[in-house]
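Office hours follow-up: a student asked to see two folded examples consecutively, so here they are.
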Amino acid sequence: MTKQLSFFLLLLTCNLVAAQWQSKYEAKMLIEGNDTLRYRIMYPNNFQEDGNYPVVLFLHGAGERGNDNEKQLVHGGKLFATDYLQERYPAIVIFPQCPTNSYWSNVDVDRSTYPIKLNFNYKGGPTKPLEMVMDLLQTTIEQPYANDNQVYLMGLSMGGMGTFELLSRKPDTFAAAIPICGGGDPNSVATYAKKIPLWVFHGAQDNVVNPLQSMEMVSALLSAGAYPRFTVYDFANHNSWDPAFAEPDLLPWLFSHKKESP
């Protein structure tokens, strides 16, 4: 067998494996007037309408924006889609895609220098994509097969920013959240600080989103009486999601939480 043929067969096998887990996510759209939110959703194996399943919402980063309804699965999609994890943690997993010209969080981003400068403006209301994500999430958790005591939120980079903002806008919705290499408005944490367990991640060498952004949010949470988990990787740059996804306790920690009764 030639080296070229061996390489082709290896590439074909890798593509088939990728397609196998990606195909578990159904491509759908939410249309509200002139606005469209594209999203992918994965249901548990042997899904039953009379089941009772946790719901996971995952917000991608700025690099995965677009309208192909595919790129948002690049980071994190496989995390939930392996056969082993689907069996251990059967859940409804949603990956919405933010349009190219928008952002999950209401924030002014200055990319003239790096790390980027961020000016959050939650008082201006949610962006249209985040507003539609909230509508999609609400519709999902109202279904009889969704366990509204086990609704989880994760996001990286731009999605980490969206995670912090969404927590402040829906403080009674989530059982736990994982913001990765994001940031937010430290003045917004009081509404959810004592209600929602957080595990915050960042890379100490991050030259895109300053790790101080996460540190400021964690500091605000501590000041508000919360006890978040906070992991800083001394070796990681912006892609701190890679070691975060490799944490053996990540999903056990996430799914162990249930929303506290009022």
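And the second, which I mentioned at the end of office hours:
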Amino acid sequence: MARLENKVAVVTGSGSGIGAAIAKRFAEEGAKVVLADVSDKGVTQVKQAIEQAGGTAEFIIGDISKEENAKKINDFAVEKFGKLDILVNNAGYAGPSDPAEQFNSEEFDKIFKVNAYGTFYMVKHAVSHMKENKGGSIINVASNSIMTRTDYPGYAGSKGAVRTMSYTFSNILAKDKIRVNTLIPGTTRTPMVQAIFDDEELAKKYIDTIPLGEVVEPEDLANGALYLASDEARRVTGTELVVDAGMSL
């Protein structure tokens, strides 16, 4: 039996990278997946790939930094597939790595709007649907920038908020059998950072700093998310799963 058979999952930021890998992995394991992203640039291809592999997926476009869109995405999943079992809050925005005294306030607002507010809105509007199912699994994607040195204070701050919200929600929602856990990636080989790995010398310098000596791949995060979403983790809530090849050690 597939590990997510008869489950319905929403994955935000699923047009590429980690989100796309999670969506494909969930579909492989039997979930009906709603792909949500801010544009249709990648989700149409991800949907096609899932369907060609025999899976089921629909997509919806929406900016989760606006609450009405978060509600629309969650409602869409129920309209299409009848329920909502799993929510993966993967969508994120890094912003610039400008020095603190030069950091643009509008950029800071955008980072928090997408990463922190967006996560909150998505959870808020998923909960009522999950209560109807008498349970569910919420996975909030943070970042190991909250555990290591970083040049992205806005991003790290917003992901710190995600981490704290996850822990708080896990306590609040436990009585409803809704599990809330945090997935913490390190730098992962995605289009956003591919330039590092395109430069052989730069890539070697970077990989030499990683304790396991290997780059994290999107599929590594997908496997972690699969465990947290599955019934194998039915008694796991309020935890953090770090997938960073030891970068935060």
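Two things to take away from it. The helical segments are 17-28, 43-52, 67-81, 105-132, 153-173, 194-198, 200-207, 218-229. The beta strands are 8-12, 32-37, 56-61, 86-89, 136-141, 178-185, 240-243.
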